[in-house]
Amino acid sequence: MIAFIIKRTALMVPTMLIISAIVFVVIQLPPGDFLDTLASQLASQGEGLADSQIALLRERYGLDQSILVQYLKWITNIVTALDFGQSFEWNKAVLDVIAPRFWVTLGIALLSLALTAVVAIPCGIYVSLRQYSLGDNLATFLSFLGLAVPNVLMTLVLMYASFTLFDANPGGLFSAQYQDAPWSVGRVLDLMAHLWIPVAVLATAGTAEVVRVMRATMLDELSKPYVDTARAKGLTEARLTMKYPARIAINPIVSKLGWMIPIIVSSEAVVSIVADIPTMGPLLLRSLLAQDMYLAGAIILMLAFLTVVGTLISDILLALLDPRIRHAME
Length: 330
Hints:
The chain contains 16 helices and two strands. It has helices spanning about 1-25, 35-45, 50-60, 65-80, 95-130, 135-150, 150-165, 185-220, 225-230, 235-245, 245-250, 250-255, 255-275, 280-290, 295-320, 325-330; strands spanning about 85, 90-95. A two-stranded antiparallel sheet has the order 1-2. Helix 6 (about 135-150) packs across helix 8 (about 185-220). The longest helix has about 40 residues, at about 185-220. The termini are close together.
């Protein structure tokens, strides 16, 4: 087990290097660069940049160099000094732009995952034990509804309900009185009052998917002969369910853990735009449109790192939950 973790951790280094190279090239595939985009925007406003000014700025930002040279400088600075470069649009260090939004994004993602697990796993177990009952049919209907309703529509409905029923303004990250206030219990509660809508919206689709997977896997396990053998030995239904089928049925969900965070981050972009919450999703979209390659590359690289780390955590949890996988690792 220890050897497996060390091996997988060591493989993360070349994996991230390959991902960084692909990301850097893909971001630069569209024609032009940040200065071309900036010049077009200024020209549409009746202003403009002279060719000499553009040439000087391109030399200043290093955009006159080849993609290979730009990438080598970028990745070298990341590895040696954790320096992701300078954001062209914001005119400051990329980490300074990302840092506040990163923690908000990660907090929303983890809360959404926790809510999904707390609701979906018990619900999936229950409906599998009550197949074709009213509860099963209701959960199936709600699952398809949760998958079908767009996040933007659900966000607008919840914001409207919050405003009309509770006279609350759920937009933004904090209320006006807590915007620049020091941290306190009141500020934390105000933060939770603004985050519950994106967390609930993002957890809905995940919950619907996990309930369906959990139900299908549980029904498959409950039909196997070892369940009848366990019943014949006198095990109670509750103990039998939790000791055998539920432990096996949860494996497919745990294996997807590493891929859930980037999916949530990509889904929260629209939710954050509607709810006016400063997360990495809208920032990534803005940086791609502006061709701010260092900012966009850093965000995608961070998401890739979370995915790789999440996959490693998933494999470790699978090994702890399933002895067969643990023995295979050894």
